[in-house]
Amino acid sequence: MIQKIKPILGSFFYAGFLPNAPGTWGSFFALFPIYFVGVYAPWYGMALLALLCSLITIWVSEECERVWGGDPSPLVMDEFAGQSMAFIAIPFSGVISYDIMLLVTGFFIFRFFDIKKPLGVDELQQLPGGLGILIDDLLAGFYAFLCLKIILFLI
């Protein structure tokens, strides 16, 4: 039973099976819980969300690789973890227009770093198992976080 749940969680409830760019879909659907946590949770809520998604990714990755092959594209929980990392310590205001702008900006910056894999992101993907699947997304999320902090400082 538990083995059947792992691919469901890993694909973020089948978001990873949407056509064309499953990682982008996973990152997009992650924005909804990220918004909720950013607005309604205490200051450490986003860190807990990123940690939870990271632990889930590591836990499900072996079964997902067994079912779908190495670093499988339907496995998008790692994108959820990385996208969450991009918003750690980023203040949400509760003003919808501002928060949507923040989410959209963070989404595109994260996707840039996740797809292009610059500055060491690609090398980390070579690590074995769930850690290799996860760590490149966390670093992409960290780079997106730094960019968001700079943007927020400048505006």
Automatic annotation (TrEMBL):
One of its GO terms (molecular function) is phosphatidylglycerophosphatase activity. It holds the Pfam family PgpA. The chain crosses the membrane at residues 12-35, 41-60, 87-113, 133-154. GO terms for biological process: lipid metabolic process. The keyword Transmembrane applies. InterPro entries: PgpA, PgpA-like_sf, YutG/PgpA. Residues 9-151 form the YutG/PgpA domain. It comes from the Bacteria. Keywords: Membrane, Transmembrane, Transmembrane helix. This is Phosphatidylglycerophosphatase. It comes from Fodinibius roseus.
